[in-house]
Amino acid sequence: MTISVETIEAKSADNRSPVDTRRKGRLNPVVAYLLRRLGIYLLTLWGAITLSFLFFRLIPGDPISAFVTSMESQGRYGAGDSSEQVVEYYRQQFGLDGTLLEQYLRYMERVVFHFDFGPSLVSYPTPSTDLIMRALPWTLGLVGAATILSWVIGVLLGTLLGWTRSSWISRWSTNLSLGVSHIHAYFIALLFVYAFAYWNPWLPASGAYDARIEPGWSLDFIGSIIKHGTLPVLSIALVGATGWMISTRALVVAILGEDYLTFAAAKGLSRWRILTRYVMRNAWLPQVAALGITLGGVVGGSVLIENLFRYPGLGALLVNALGVRDLNTAQAVVSLLIVFVLTANLIIDLLLPLLDPRVRQHR
Amino acid sequence: MSRQLFTRRSVLGAAGLGVAGLGAAMSPFANRSNASPGGGAALDPGCYSCSGPAPAYLRSYRQSASIPTPREQTLVIAQPPTVVFDSFNPYIPNGMAGSYGLDQVCFEHLFYFNFETGELINGIGTGWEYNADYTELVLRLNPNARWSDGTPLTADDIVFTVAMLQGNASLFTASGVINNVESATAIDPQTVQYRLLRANPRYHYAFIAGIIGAGFLVQPKHIWENQDPASFPNNPPVHAGPYVLDQVLPDQFMYIWRKNHDYWNIANLNCQPEYVIVRQEQPVDLEVQEFQRGNLDTGGPLTIDYLNQQVIKATDESAILFPFSDPCPRSLFPNFDGPSGLMAIPEGRWAVSYMIDRQVAAEVLSQPPSQPAKFPWAPYVSNEQWSVPEIQQQHDFTFDMNRAAELLDAAGATLVDGRRQLNGQPLNVQIITPVVVTDPGYQIADMLRLNAAELGLEMTLSSLQGGTHGDVHAFGDYDINAQWMCGLVFDPVQMYDDFLMRDYVPVGERAISNLNRVQLPEFDEVVTRLEAADPADPANKPDFDRALELYFEGLPVIPTAQTAFSFLYNTKTWTGWPTPEDRYGIGASWWSQFRFVIGRLQPAAAAQ
User: Fold this and answer.
1) What number of C-beta contacts closer than 8 Å exist between A and B?
2) Most B CBs within 10 Å: which of A62, A71, A73, as the mutation test of the B interface?
3) Given an 8 Å threshold on Cβ–Cβ distance, is A207 in contact with B29?
4) Which distant-in-sequence residues (6+ apart) come within 8 Å of A175 by Cβ?
């Protein structure tokens, strides 16, 4: 019996397992991974923004009536001004009229299709997004720089502390870091202000730049920004760095007991090579993920630090907005925070396989 | 082991050296601190563009005075935070940062009223007259008045502003025109005839800047016409005041106003500061330093609190402490329809009054110390005409717990097992307040709560913030609201108006006025009659006295302490501030009348 090649191929085709068939219809694993992550990202984004909408709308009381009443109690407007007509007009302007569902649908339509969070109450009729865009660069510069600086310093020193864990320097430094990490950056900032702005007048105590310098891309202006940002950045970075130091040290200490390090030492690798190629790479991976999340939260600003240094950032804006229950601005800030945190997570999720081969293999 | 001991020793030694070093570092600082405040002005504070080496304290001085104008020509004021930097519209919510210079130096009102002296000062207006039945009013303007862009300010601007407000009910202050004015007509460029909707001998109050500002603010027709006033940013603002906007620095939270040398009224108000900078206040510790270095001329009482003001005053000869009576005394508002039912009974309200030790409230709890409230208005010279000691003495606000207990018994709030009951139900009087727990207003209410507990009357005190308080207050779900009482600017009817039954709505509905659901028919009748009566006519004085008597009997509001504010003025750069001995003007740096203080300032260098 002779079997032709075509017959074998036909049989072979007939004998394909259902699993093989399903595999053929599958997407490339990398594309599938990306789509899955994006899907989760969008779903989480929608859920978080919806929850924040509900959170703000369910706060008891009507912000417009409350605002008008507070104006009256300050003697700025007469009692007759809080007529229902005025209140109704502004309820409409701020998207507070109609049922909660109607408000939600209008809100999502505006935000999704027009990126419009509506007018601000703290500075009516300036759009909330304008206020945020004015404050965002300052916050990103201030808290972003402080976060990255604290991460770099904290992770480097933490690694060294873990690597030399039995030395007295490591023990004392760890204890000191534990103490400092529990001090609020505001307190450190106050000490810095007294030490470096008043006792020793080296750095300015407040503001984002010297009001005598015209803003622009000049060295004077950039230098002024750096000079004014030094104290607030260092205040945040000092406390932040100690946190990173402690966590990195813990990670390094845990890794030091691993068999593969003993094996690497047995192979005759230098201590430096073991530290940089084996210890640091393993210890830093979770820290990179954590940095992503922390960077996402940078847009929340540092309320107390911004207030202390009279820094024109988002933290100060959020406090002002909440003070008058400016739902549009507060929601816009929170939504921006959500977007940044989720996007940072997404980027880390996408980058992690590149940094850690185990993640690729697991997938 | 020995290595560890050595390590500890070395660390302790290092710590000791550190402490010693810190002490050494602080020692010269103490000297510098003493030298700096006085030395700042003498060492050319305005030399902001100087170059070359400078002593450390001077470097610090120059670094901190981060203003884009010459210091010696600039008045620097600090105000509470704002985020409004691009809008100057007074008719919309947060459409302007009024206290950042607009109210004080940019806007020009028709008239100004000085509580301290009782003086009425002309602004744009020169006078007004009513017809015999108070249904018409003629307003006269100063023929020299001009807007800051040079355009003459005329009756047409008044007529335009009235029409704009009448046509836009959603604008703040519009109801004041809509509810009172039928029409406004220009008789000639300097004369406007108002036709009122009903007899109203008080409509001119809207023209006068009393507390903060005036109810009616004339706008330039040539700027506002063809604009939507509900969204017009009015940037840059064109008005008729002594300063014009130079620039706004949002990133510095700073408004800079420049003197208008063509100001139409410069002959009467020639302000010496070339610039007025109003910036956001910083944490109090920093402001104290700023003040001592001469970088801040004045701020509100919140900028530098009373304790720090006293410290500065004690150590700095260039500081002036100026106490000022708040136009809004701290008060308790009993809700006649409150859930406990006790406040509906006159004896219940008076029992509350007797439970308040006003001496303690004024002299201990209030900072700076003030005086016990005797009348439901501030003790200004201008209010003396309404204060009748004979009536007040019959209804004295004394602290008498025995009398309070008697009145509670008389009100039917009987003591059962150590706790007061009303109609068989245990009493719990709910007090709300919009102020924080550290505020004297809260502490006065807390004193009441503790005193009431001694008589078996349970009270609950809640500090509700912002809109939450506004809602609870407006919907009437409370027994007593501990707040402050504003209202009286020119005559008591302005304050009595807040307690009229025509504005009554039941608990559960939002009240616009009469928020504490007062129901006093006779008081209502007299006040309604007074609304149509000319307060300047001596023939109406008996009715005013009767209203005061009925007020004391009914007690729709219980004043506790006459709050005082204390302002700190810096004479390093400017002199001529009001002092306790020379109370020539309103010292509040966020009020419209502060322009008259600015008008009296002289450069400190010239004074030396």
Assistant:
1) 188
2) A73
3) no
4) none
- Whole-angstrom CA distances from B176 to A356, B500, B534 are 70, 18, 19
Edge-to-edge strands of the sheet including B564-570?
Answer: B243-249, B254-259, B275-280, B74-79, B298-299, B564-570, B319-325
Question: How far is the alpha carbon of B241 from chain A, nearest alpha carbon, in Å?
Answer: 19
Mean pLDDT of B269-276: 97
Residues of A in contact with B254 (CB under 8 A): 211
Average pLDDT over residues B243-258: 94
Say which amino acid occupies A174. T
Q: Cα separation of A332 and A339, whole Å?
A: 10
Confidence band, pLDDT 50/70/90 cuts, at residue A349: confident
Give the least confident one: A239-243, B39-43, B349-353: B39-43
Lowest mean pLDDT among A22-26, A217-221, A263-267, B179-183: A22-26
CA angle A309, A310, A311 (to 5 degrees): 90
Q: Is B498's CB within 8 Å of A122's CB?
A: no
Interchain CB distance below 8 Å, A126 and B215: no
Q: How many CB atoms lie within 10 A of CB B327?
A: 24
Closest residue to A201, CB basis, from B63, B173, B510? B63
Task: Please give the residue of chain A at the shortest CA–CA distance from B172.
Answer: A81
Give the DSSP per-residue string, A179-203.
HHHTS-HHHHHHHHHIIIIIISTTS
Q: Which of A80, A124, A201 has the CB atom closest to B59's CB atom?
A: A201
DSSP, res B133: T
| Residues comprising chain A, all counted | 363
Distances (CA, A) of B335 to B340, B346, B348: 10, 11, 11
Q: What is the mean pLDDT of residues B451-479?
A: 91
Q: Do A76 and B513 touch (CB under 8 A)?
A: no
- Between A111-120, A180-189, A348-357, the lowest mean confidence (pLDDT) is in A348-357
User: In this structure, how many other beta carbons lie within 10 angstroms of the beta carbon of residue B347?
Assistant: 17
Task: Decide if B251 and A215 are in contact by the 8 Å CB cutoff.
Answer: yes
More confident call, B569 vs A80: B569
B250 contact partners, CB below 8 Å, separation of at least 6: A134, A312, B85, B86
Centre a 10 Å sphere on the Cβ of residue B318 and count the other Cβ atoms it contains.
19
pLDDT given at position A252: 92
Confidence of residue B51 (pLDDT cuts 50, 70, 90): very low
B52 class by beta-carbon count within 10 Å (0-12 exposed, 13-18 middle, 19+ buried)? exposed
- DSSP-derived secondary structure letter, A81: G
Q: pLDDT over 90 for what percent of chain B? A: 67
Q: Given a cut of 70, is residue A74 above it in pLDDT?
A: no
List pLDDT tens digits, range B67-89.
999 999 999 999 988 889 989 99
The b/e string for B92-128 (b: 16+ C-beta within 10 A; e otherwise) is: bbbbbbbbbbbbbbbbbbbbbbbbbeeeebbbbbbeb
pLDDT in tens, B216-229: 999 999 999 999 99
Full-model pTM = 0.81
Task: Please give the Cα distance from B411 to B422 (Å, whole number).
Answer: 8
Write down the ipTM of this complex.
0.75
Count CB atoms within 10 A of the CB of residue A187: 12
- Contact assignment for A76 to B175 by CB distance below 8 Å: no
Per-residue confidence band for A37, with pLDDT thresholds at 50, 70 and 90: confident
Residue B5's pLDDT is what? 39
List beta partners, residue B416.
B419
Q: Distance between CA A258 and CA A77 in Å, rounded?
A: 72
In the chain, the amino acid numbered B561 is A
Distance from CA of A83 to the nearest CA of B (A): 7
For B160, what's the count of Cα atoms within 13 Å in the CB-facing half-sphere?
17
Residue of chain B whose alpha carbon sits nearest to that of A308? B283
